[in-house]
Design a protein that fits this description.
By secondary structure, the chain is α/β, with parallel strands linked by helices. 30% of the residues lie in helices and 26% in strands.
Length: 375
Protein backbone atom coordinates (compact mmCIF):
# COMPACT_ATOMS: atom_id res chain seq x y z
CA UNK A 1 0.00 0.00 0.00
CA UNK A 2 1.31 3.41 -0.92
CA UNK A 3 1.03 6.39 1.39
CA UNK A 4 -0.64 9.63 0.38
CA UNK A 5 2.83 11.22 0.02
CA UNK A 6 4.25 8.38 -2.03
CA UNK A 7 1.24 8.45 -4.34
CA UNK A 8 1.43 12.22 -4.69
CA UNK A 9 5.18 12.59 -5.26
CA UNK A 10 6.83 9.31 -6.26
CA UNK A 11 4.82 7.40 -8.83
CA UNK A 12 3.79 9.80 -11.62
CA UNK A 13 6.32 10.85 -14.26
CA UNK A 14 6.53 12.28 -17.76
CA UNK A 15 9.10 9.70 -18.85
CA UNK A 16 10.08 6.42 -17.25
CA UNK A 17 13.28 4.83 -18.55
CA UNK A 18 13.70 1.14 -17.78
CA UNK A 19 17.36 0.14 -17.53
CA UNK A 20 20.16 2.27 -16.15
CA UNK A 21 23.02 1.28 -18.47
CA UNK A 22 24.72 3.58 -20.97
CA UNK A 23 21.64 3.73 -23.21
CA UNK A 24 19.08 4.24 -20.43
CA UNK A 25 21.07 7.00 -18.73
CA UNK A 26 21.88 8.66 -22.08
CA UNK A 27 18.19 8.57 -23.01
CA UNK A 28 17.13 10.19 -19.75
CA UNK A 29 19.77 12.92 -20.08
CA UNK A 30 18.98 13.79 -23.69
CA UNK A 31 15.23 13.77 -23.05
CA UNK A 32 15.60 16.05 -20.04
CA UNK A 33 17.85 18.45 -21.99
CA UNK A 34 15.19 18.62 -24.67
CA UNK A 35 12.28 18.88 -22.22
CA UNK A 36 13.71 20.58 -19.11
CA UNK A 37 10.34 20.60 -17.30
CA UNK A 38 9.81 16.84 -17.71
CA UNK A 39 9.81 14.59 -14.65
CA UNK A 40 12.14 11.75 -15.61
CA UNK A 41 12.63 8.52 -13.68
CA UNK A 42 15.16 5.74 -14.38
CA UNK A 43 14.40 2.28 -12.98
CA UNK A 44 17.41 -0.02 -12.71
CA UNK A 45 17.12 -3.55 -11.35
CA UNK A 46 20.70 -3.73 -10.04
CA UNK A 47 22.45 -1.75 -7.34
CA UNK A 48 24.75 -0.69 -10.19
CA UNK A 49 23.81 -1.00 -13.85
CA UNK A 50 23.81 -4.80 -14.16
CA UNK A 51 24.06 -5.82 -17.79
CA UNK A 52 26.99 -4.76 -19.93
CA UNK A 53 27.74 -1.10 -19.21
CA UNK A 54 29.70 -1.57 -15.97
CA UNK A 55 31.22 -4.88 -17.09
CA UNK A 56 32.76 -3.90 -20.40
CA UNK A 57 36.40 -3.47 -21.42
CA UNK A 58 36.27 0.24 -22.19
CA UNK A 59 37.48 -0.01 -25.77
CA UNK A 60 36.57 3.13 -27.65
CA UNK A 61 36.73 1.32 -30.96
CA UNK A 62 34.76 0.89 -34.16
CA UNK A 63 36.01 -2.26 -35.88
CA UNK A 64 39.38 -3.87 -36.59
CA UNK A 65 40.58 -4.64 -40.13
CA UNK A 66 39.56 -8.32 -40.03
CA UNK A 67 36.24 -7.45 -38.42
CA UNK A 68 35.45 -4.98 -41.20
CA UNK A 69 36.48 -7.58 -43.81
CA UNK A 70 34.20 -10.08 -42.09
CA UNK A 71 31.34 -7.56 -42.10
CA UNK A 72 31.83 -7.11 -45.86
CA UNK A 73 30.95 -10.80 -46.27
CA UNK A 74 27.47 -10.15 -44.85
CA UNK A 75 26.80 -6.49 -45.61
CA UNK A 76 27.13 -4.16 -48.57
CA UNK A 77 30.03 -1.68 -48.73
CA UNK A 78 27.72 1.25 -48.03
CA UNK A 79 26.24 -0.51 -44.98
CA UNK A 80 29.71 -1.17 -43.60
CA UNK A 81 30.75 2.45 -44.15
CA UNK A 82 27.53 3.58 -42.46
CA UNK A 83 28.21 1.31 -39.44
CA UNK A 84 31.81 2.47 -39.02
CA UNK A 85 30.78 6.12 -39.42
CA UNK A 86 28.07 5.76 -36.80
CA UNK A 87 30.48 4.22 -34.30
CA UNK A 88 33.21 6.76 -34.96
CA UNK A 89 30.85 9.73 -34.73
CA UNK A 90 29.33 8.19 -31.59
CA UNK A 91 32.75 8.21 -29.94
CA UNK A 92 33.34 11.79 -30.98
CA UNK A 93 29.95 12.81 -29.58
CA UNK A 94 30.57 11.41 -26.06
CA UNK A 95 34.08 12.88 -26.03
CA UNK A 96 32.62 16.23 -27.00
CA UNK A 97 29.72 16.09 -24.48
CA UNK A 98 31.57 14.77 -21.41
CA UNK A 99 35.20 15.70 -22.15
CA UNK A 100 38.10 13.24 -22.28
CA UNK A 101 39.03 13.81 -18.64
CA UNK A 102 35.56 12.79 -17.41
CA UNK A 103 35.62 9.63 -19.51
CA UNK A 104 39.19 8.73 -18.65
CA UNK A 105 39.69 8.73 -22.42
CA UNK A 106 43.15 8.00 -23.81
CA UNK A 107 43.77 8.29 -27.52
CA UNK A 108 46.05 5.28 -27.47
CA UNK A 109 45.27 3.75 -30.90
CA UNK A 110 43.79 0.37 -31.74
CA UNK A 111 46.07 -2.51 -32.71
CA UNK A 112 45.19 -5.84 -34.25
CA UNK A 113 47.43 -8.90 -34.05
CA UNK A 114 47.51 -11.11 -37.12
CA UNK A 115 48.64 -14.73 -37.02
CA UNK A 116 49.12 -16.93 -40.11
CA UNK A 117 45.33 -17.38 -40.25
CA UNK A 118 44.70 -13.67 -40.64
CA UNK A 119 47.63 -12.30 -42.66
CA UNK A 120 45.39 -12.48 -45.75
CA UNK A 121 43.90 -9.23 -44.38
CA UNK A 122 47.09 -7.32 -45.27
CA UNK A 123 46.18 -7.61 -48.94
CA UNK A 124 43.00 -5.63 -48.28
CA UNK A 125 44.51 -2.86 -46.21
CA UNK A 126 44.61 -0.29 -49.02
CA UNK A 127 41.15 -1.24 -50.22
CA UNK A 128 39.62 -0.73 -46.78
CA UNK A 129 41.51 2.55 -46.31
CA UNK A 130 40.07 3.76 -49.61
CA UNK A 131 36.58 2.58 -48.69
CA UNK A 132 36.71 4.53 -45.43
CA UNK A 133 38.54 7.56 -46.84
CA UNK A 134 35.38 9.71 -46.95
CA UNK A 135 34.95 9.23 -43.17
CA UNK A 136 38.49 9.82 -41.89
CA UNK A 137 40.93 12.68 -42.43
CA UNK A 138 43.82 10.29 -43.14
CA UNK A 139 44.40 6.59 -43.79
CA UNK A 140 42.89 4.67 -40.94
CA UNK A 141 44.88 1.39 -40.96
CA UNK A 142 48.63 0.94 -41.29
CA UNK A 143 50.95 -1.98 -40.68
CA UNK A 144 53.35 -1.57 -37.73
CA UNK A 145 56.87 -1.83 -39.13
CA UNK A 146 58.69 -3.45 -36.21
CA UNK A 147 56.55 -5.60 -33.91
CA UNK A 148 59.42 -7.03 -31.84
CA UNK A 149 59.16 -4.41 -29.04
CA UNK A 150 55.66 -5.74 -28.14
CA UNK A 151 57.25 -9.04 -27.08
CA UNK A 152 54.41 -11.20 -28.48
CA UNK A 153 54.94 -14.87 -29.31
CA UNK A 154 56.31 -15.55 -32.80
CA UNK A 155 52.83 -16.80 -33.78
CA UNK A 156 52.00 -13.11 -34.26
CA UNK A 157 53.12 -12.28 -37.79
CA UNK A 158 51.91 -8.70 -38.17
CA UNK A 159 50.20 -5.88 -36.27
CA UNK A 160 47.83 -3.34 -37.81
CA UNK A 161 47.45 0.07 -36.20
CA UNK A 162 44.29 2.16 -36.22
CA UNK A 163 45.06 5.79 -35.41
CA UNK A 164 41.49 6.76 -34.66
CA UNK A 165 40.73 4.45 -31.73
CA UNK A 166 41.33 4.81 -28.02
CA UNK A 167 40.22 3.56 -24.62
CA UNK A 168 38.27 4.86 -21.68
CA UNK A 169 37.51 4.09 -18.06
CA UNK A 170 34.06 2.48 -18.09
CA UNK A 171 33.45 3.39 -14.44
CA UNK A 172 34.27 7.05 -15.11
CA UNK A 173 31.93 7.06 -18.10
CA UNK A 174 29.05 5.69 -16.02
CA UNK A 175 29.84 8.07 -13.16
CA UNK A 176 29.75 10.97 -15.60
CA UNK A 177 26.36 9.81 -16.87
CA UNK A 178 25.10 9.49 -13.29
CA UNK A 179 26.42 12.89 -12.31
CA UNK A 180 24.79 14.48 -15.33
CA UNK A 181 21.49 12.84 -14.32
CA UNK A 182 21.88 14.33 -10.85
CA UNK A 183 22.67 17.79 -12.26
CA UNK A 184 19.52 17.58 -14.37
CA UNK A 185 17.34 16.37 -11.50
CA UNK A 186 16.67 12.99 -13.04
CA UNK A 187 15.61 10.45 -10.42
CA UNK A 188 17.36 7.07 -10.52
CA UNK A 189 15.93 4.22 -8.46
CA UNK A 190 18.29 1.25 -8.30
CA UNK A 191 17.20 -2.17 -7.03
CA UNK A 192 13.97 -1.67 -8.99
CA UNK A 193 13.13 -4.76 -11.01
CA UNK A 194 10.45 -3.98 -13.58
CA UNK A 195 8.16 -7.00 -13.85
CA UNK A 196 5.66 -5.81 -16.36
CA UNK A 197 4.64 -2.94 -18.61
CA UNK A 198 1.04 -2.05 -19.30
CA UNK A 199 1.41 -0.30 -22.67
CA UNK A 200 -2.15 0.95 -22.93
CA UNK A 201 -2.36 2.13 -19.33
CA UNK A 202 1.19 3.55 -19.50
CA UNK A 203 2.02 1.75 -16.27
CA UNK A 204 5.20 0.10 -15.10
CA UNK A 205 5.05 -2.52 -12.35
CA UNK A 206 8.07 -2.88 -10.10
CA UNK A 207 8.86 -5.64 -7.62
CA UNK A 208 8.37 -4.42 -4.07
CA UNK A 209 10.91 -5.97 -1.69
CA UNK A 210 9.15 -4.59 1.41
CA UNK A 211 5.49 -5.16 0.62
CA UNK A 212 3.12 -7.76 -0.80
CA UNK A 213 2.04 -5.89 -3.92
CA UNK A 214 4.06 -4.62 -6.81
CA UNK A 215 4.53 -0.86 -7.02
CA UNK A 216 2.82 0.70 -10.01
CA UNK A 217 4.55 3.71 -11.59
CA UNK A 218 2.88 5.77 -14.29
CA UNK A 219 4.27 7.89 -17.10
CA UNK A 220 3.19 9.65 -20.28
CA UNK A 221 6.02 7.90 -22.10
CA UNK A 222 8.13 4.83 -21.43
CA UNK A 223 11.61 4.06 -22.78
CA UNK A 224 12.80 0.46 -22.57
CA UNK A 225 16.62 0.29 -22.51
CA UNK A 226 17.14 -3.20 -21.14
CA UNK A 227 19.40 -4.52 -23.95
CA UNK A 228 19.90 -8.30 -23.61
CA UNK A 229 17.09 -8.61 -21.03
CA UNK A 230 14.39 -7.04 -23.18
CA UNK A 231 12.66 -10.29 -24.18
CA UNK A 232 11.81 -10.88 -20.51
CA UNK A 233 9.59 -7.78 -20.70
CA UNK A 234 8.71 -7.66 -24.40
CA UNK A 235 8.99 -11.17 -25.86
CA UNK A 236 9.50 -11.91 -29.53
CA UNK A 237 12.23 -9.44 -30.50
CA UNK A 238 15.28 -10.60 -32.46
CA UNK A 239 17.65 -10.41 -29.49
CA UNK A 240 20.14 -13.11 -28.49
CA UNK A 241 22.09 -12.67 -25.28
CA UNK A 242 25.86 -12.98 -25.65
CA UNK A 243 27.87 -13.29 -22.50
CA UNK A 244 31.36 -11.82 -22.38
CA UNK A 245 34.14 -12.72 -19.99
CA UNK A 246 36.82 -10.35 -18.71
CA UNK A 247 39.98 -11.25 -16.74
CA UNK A 248 42.35 -8.83 -15.02
CA UNK A 249 45.85 -9.78 -13.84
CA UNK A 250 47.56 -8.77 -10.64
CA UNK A 251 49.96 -5.83 -11.10
CA UNK A 252 52.91 -6.87 -13.24
CA UNK A 253 56.25 -5.70 -11.88
CA UNK A 254 58.05 -5.79 -15.25
CA UNK A 255 57.29 -2.93 -17.66
CA UNK A 256 55.04 -4.32 -20.37
CA UNK A 257 55.28 -2.35 -23.63
CA UNK A 258 51.60 -2.53 -24.47
CA UNK A 259 50.10 0.89 -25.14
CA UNK A 260 46.78 0.86 -26.93
CA UNK A 261 43.75 -1.37 -27.29
CA UNK A 262 44.58 -4.73 -28.80
CA UNK A 263 42.40 -7.09 -30.83
CA UNK A 264 43.15 -10.71 -31.58
CA UNK A 265 41.32 -13.59 -33.26
CA UNK A 266 39.22 -11.37 -35.58
CA UNK A 267 38.24 -9.11 -32.70
CA UNK A 268 36.84 -11.93 -30.56
CA UNK A 269 39.67 -11.47 -28.06
CA UNK A 270 40.78 -8.08 -26.79
CA UNK A 271 43.29 -6.80 -24.26
CA UNK A 272 44.76 -3.59 -22.92
CA UNK A 273 46.88 -2.37 -20.07
CA UNK A 274 44.94 -0.92 -17.13
CA UNK A 275 47.47 0.82 -14.89
CA UNK A 276 50.08 -1.91 -14.33
CA UNK A 277 47.74 -4.83 -15.04
CA UNK A 278 46.47 -6.53 -18.18
CA UNK A 279 42.75 -6.63 -18.86
CA UNK A 280 41.85 -9.41 -21.27
CA UNK A 281 38.44 -10.48 -22.49
CA UNK A 282 36.26 -12.09 -25.11
CA UNK A 283 36.56 -15.59 -26.51
CA UNK A 284 32.82 -16.01 -27.09
CA UNK A 285 33.64 -17.78 -30.37
CA UNK A 286 35.00 -20.73 -28.37
CA UNK A 287 31.51 -21.56 -27.09
CA UNK A 288 28.82 -19.49 -28.84
CA UNK A 289 26.07 -21.81 -27.61
CA UNK A 290 27.19 -21.76 -23.97
CA UNK A 291 27.49 -17.98 -24.01
CA UNK A 292 23.92 -17.46 -25.18
CA UNK A 293 22.99 -16.91 -21.57
CA UNK A 294 21.60 -14.25 -19.26
CA UNK A 295 23.39 -15.69 -16.26
CA UNK A 296 26.55 -13.88 -15.23
CA UNK A 297 28.69 -16.95 -14.74
CA UNK A 298 32.23 -17.57 -15.85
CA UNK A 299 32.56 -20.16 -18.62
CA UNK A 300 35.59 -22.34 -17.61
CA UNK A 301 36.33 -23.29 -21.23
CA UNK A 302 36.64 -19.66 -22.27
CA UNK A 303 38.57 -18.75 -19.14
CA UNK A 304 41.11 -21.43 -20.02
CA UNK A 305 41.35 -20.21 -23.62
CA UNK A 306 41.95 -16.61 -22.53
CA UNK A 307 44.61 -17.64 -20.01
CA UNK A 308 46.32 -19.64 -22.76
CA UNK A 309 46.38 -16.60 -25.04
CA UNK A 310 47.65 -14.38 -22.24
CA UNK A 311 50.52 -16.68 -21.33
CA UNK A 312 51.42 -18.11 -24.72
CA UNK A 313 50.74 -15.30 -27.18
CA UNK A 314 50.62 -11.94 -25.42
CA UNK A 315 53.17 -12.24 -22.63
CA UNK A 316 55.17 -15.40 -23.32
CA UNK A 317 58.17 -14.12 -21.35
CA UNK A 318 56.41 -12.63 -18.34
CA UNK A 319 55.04 -14.24 -15.19
CA UNK A 320 51.38 -13.25 -14.72
CA UNK A 321 48.78 -14.09 -12.11
CA UNK A 322 45.06 -13.45 -12.34
CA UNK A 323 43.34 -11.19 -9.86
CA UNK A 324 39.77 -10.52 -11.06
CA UNK A 325 37.23 -12.07 -13.39
CA UNK A 326 33.66 -11.21 -14.28
CA UNK A 327 31.02 -11.71 -16.93
CA UNK A 328 28.64 -9.24 -18.54
CA UNK A 329 25.81 -9.76 -20.99
CA UNK A 330 25.63 -8.23 -24.46
CA UNK A 331 22.78 -8.43 -26.97
CA UNK A 332 23.09 -9.55 -30.59
CA UNK A 333 20.74 -10.17 -33.50
CA UNK A 334 20.66 -11.09 -37.15
CA UNK A 335 22.28 -7.79 -38.05
CA UNK A 336 24.55 -5.42 -36.18
CA UNK A 337 22.12 -2.54 -35.96
CA UNK A 338 20.50 -1.71 -32.62
CA UNK A 339 16.71 -1.93 -32.49
CA UNK A 340 15.30 1.55 -32.00
CA UNK A 341 11.56 1.73 -32.51
CA UNK A 342 8.20 2.50 -30.96
CA UNK A 343 6.52 -0.70 -29.80
CA UNK A 344 3.39 1.02 -28.55
CA UNK A 345 1.89 4.48 -28.92
CA UNK A 346 3.92 5.79 -25.99
CA UNK A 347 6.54 3.09 -25.52
CA UNK A 348 9.88 3.14 -27.33
CA UNK A 349 12.82 0.78 -27.18
CA UNK A 350 16.56 1.22 -27.80
CA UNK A 351 18.18 -2.17 -27.37
CA UNK A 352 20.60 -4.74 -28.89
CA UNK A 353 23.81 -2.76 -28.73
CA UNK A 354 26.15 -5.67 -29.53
CA UNK A 355 29.78 -5.23 -28.52
CA UNK A 356 29.94 -1.54 -29.41
CA UNK A 357 27.72 0.21 -26.88
CA UNK A 358 30.48 2.54 -25.74
CA UNK A 359 30.69 3.92 -29.26
CA UNK A 360 27.03 3.93 -30.24
CA UNK A 361 25.09 4.10 -26.94
CA UNK A 362 24.74 7.88 -26.83
CA UNK A 363 23.61 8.16 -30.47
CA UNK A 364 21.21 5.25 -30.12
CA UNK A 365 19.66 7.07 -27.17
CA UNK A 366 19.38 10.21 -29.30
CA UNK A 367 17.43 8.27 -31.93
CA UNK A 368 15.01 7.03 -29.27
CA UNK A 369 14.58 10.51 -27.82
CA UNK A 370 13.74 11.81 -31.31
CA UNK A 371 11.01 9.19 -31.59
CA UNK A 372 9.63 9.85 -28.11
CA UNK A 373 9.62 13.58 -28.81
CA UNK A 374 7.24 13.01 -31.74
CA UNK A 375 4.58 11.38 -29.52
C1 LIG B 1 32.39 -8.23 -21.25
C2 LIG B 1 31.96 -7.09 -22.12
C3 LIG B 1 32.92 -6.31 -22.75
C4 LIG B 1 32.53 -5.26 -23.58
N1 LIG B 1 33.48 -4.44 -24.09
C5 LIG B 1 33.11 -3.37 -24.82
C6 LIG B 1 34.07 -2.44 -25.28
O1 LIG B 1 35.25 -2.57 -24.98
N2 LIG B 1 33.65 -1.41 -26.06
C7 LIG B 1 32.33 -1.24 -26.37
O2 LIG B 1 32.00 -0.31 -27.11
N3 LIG B 1 31.39 -2.07 -25.90
C8 LIG B 1 31.75 -3.11 -25.13
N4 LIG B 1 30.80 -3.96 -24.65
C9 LIG B 1 29.39 -3.73 -25.02
C10 LIG B 1 28.79 -2.57 -24.23
O3 LIG B 1 29.14 -2.67 -22.87
C11 LIG B 1 27.27 -2.62 -24.41
O4 LIG B 1 26.97 -2.54 -25.78
C12 LIG B 1 26.58 -1.46 -23.69
O5 LIG B 1 26.98 -1.39 -22.36
C13 LIG B 1 25.07 -1.65 -23.78
O6 LIG B 1 24.48 -0.66 -22.98
P1 LIG B 1 22.94 -0.76 -22.64
O7 LIG B 1 22.62 0.37 -21.76
O8 LIG B 1 22.16 -0.95 -23.89
O9 LIG B 1 22.79 -2.17 -21.91
P2 LIG B 1 23.13 -2.62 -20.43
O10 LIG B 1 24.37 -2.03 -19.94
O11 LIG B 1 23.02 -4.10 -20.41
O12 LIG B 1 21.96 -1.97 -19.61
C14 LIG B 1 20.68 -2.55 -19.51
C15 LIG B 1 20.26 -2.33 -18.08
O13 LIG B 1 18.90 -2.72 -17.93
C16 LIG B 1 18.77 -3.27 -16.64
N5 LIG B 1 17.56 -4.09 -16.65
C17 LIG B 1 17.33 -5.19 -17.38
N6 LIG B 1 16.10 -5.67 -17.13
C18 LIG B 1 15.55 -4.82 -16.23
C19 LIG B 1 14.28 -4.79 -15.58
N7 LIG B 1 13.36 -5.71 -15.82
N8 LIG B 1 14.03 -3.80 -14.71
C20 LIG B 1 14.96 -2.83 -14.45
N9 LIG B 1 16.18 -2.83 -15.05
C21 LIG B 1 16.46 -3.80 -15.93
C22 LIG B 1 20.05 -4.08 -16.45
O14 LIG B 1 20.31 -4.34 -15.10
C23 LIG B 1 21.08 -3.18 -17.12
O15 LIG B 1 21.73 -2.35 -16.20
C24 LIG B 1 31.15 -5.01 -23.81
C25 LIG B 1 30.20 -5.79 -23.17
C26 LIG B 1 30.59 -6.83 -22.34
C27 LIG B 1 29.56 -7.65 -21.65
Amino acid sequence: MLSYWEKKHFVDHDLIVIGGGIVGLSTSIQYKIRFPQAKVLVLERGIFPSGASSKNAGFACFGSLTEILDDLNHMSESEVVELVTKRYKGLLSIRCFFGDENLGYLHSYGLELLTDKETYALKFLDKINQLLAPVFSEEIFEQVEDIRPFGFSDKVKAVIRNKFEGELDSGKFLNSLWEKCQDLNIKILTGSVVLNIDMEGKKVFVQNPTGKNEICFQADKIAVCTNAFTNLLLPGLDIQPGRGLVLVTKPISKTVPLFGTFHYDKGYVYFRKVEDRILLGGGRNIDFEGERSLSMEVNPKIREYLIHILKEIILPDTKVELDLEWAGIMAFGKNKKPIVEMVGKNVGIAVRLGGMGVAIGWQTAEELVNMLAEV
